[in-house]
Amino acid sequence: MARKVVKAVETDLVKAADNAAERMQAVKASIGKVIYGLDEPVELCLAAILSGGHALLVGAPGLAKTRLVETIAVATGLDTKRIQFTPDLMPADILGSEVLEEGAKGKRSFRFIPGPVFARLLMADEINRASPRTQAALLQAMQEHHVTVAGERHDLPEPFHVLATQNPIEQEGTYPLPEAQLDRFLLRVDIPYPERDAERDILLATTGASDAKAEAVLNPAEVLELQGLVRRLPVGEKVLEAILDLLRMARPDVSDDQDVRDGVSWGPGPRAGQALMLACRARALIQGRLAPSTEDVAALAEPVLKHRMALSFAARAEGLTLESLIARLAAQAA
């Protein structure tokens, strides 16, 4: 009897995973009508959402970071709001504030006016241009999914995700994100310059009389259902050991790798392992697989670890890069 129950559960999981894979292919197809040549960044952003986390998009100006976030919002059916971060942005501009109102009988009371953070998909544009005080206000929302204003708790809608953009070139007037906030981002997604063929498609598609539009495929309830499915996917012992090995090798105090011991200032914490576990499951589901493999660990090592590690000045002076170091560690672990 117990065996039949287990078999039924496994069958239901397979059916749910197959259906989810089809839905995610439709989401990618909808995004592909607008976004060209960014298949991997799109997949990483979707993996972050299915994992219930946030993503930091890093790239030069004009690489469609903003357009990508807007298109993902349309395809996933998540209502979105955008905040343009500037040095004079205040916490109340993000969270909201209380205003004093006078009723018909002259009685005065405070009413909370929600800020733009009350959205299911928040686009934080050029997040590193805001002051540390404002960045800290967003930190609670990202981690706790609620905000506190005047001592009162206000819950954010579910699901809640932040897709933030950051320009790595223009550093004047910026405030580097603190390690604590960087760690809240499940993945760092680097947006590259397009290949020649993709750029050709971009020029033809965006300079004509009409623009292609993405279509809504999912809704918030389906996104929550998919997030629950991701956590139900099995993870093999080999994948688990690969994740643990990678984390240990990336920490300078316990690593056997000489470059890590001498050149890494600080390494990834347990939250990195949690992010890698969830992202591997989400990537497998998006690609139509029932369980993640060590290839997923290798593919996601850089997006998960790059913003959770730092090289010393001496290591950078000697030409060591985080990209090459993480790639080598991932190859050893997988």
TrEMBL record:
SUPFAM superfamilies with a match to the protein in the record: P-loop containing nucleoside triphosphate hydrolases
Domain of life: Bacteria
InterPro entries the UniProt entry points to: AAA+_ATPase, ATPase_AAA-3, CbbQ/NirQ/NorQ/GpvN, ChlI/MoxR_AAA_lid, P-loop_NTPase
Domain AAA+ ATPase as annotated: residue spans: 51-195
Protein known as: MoxR family ATPase
Organism: Hyphobacterium marinum
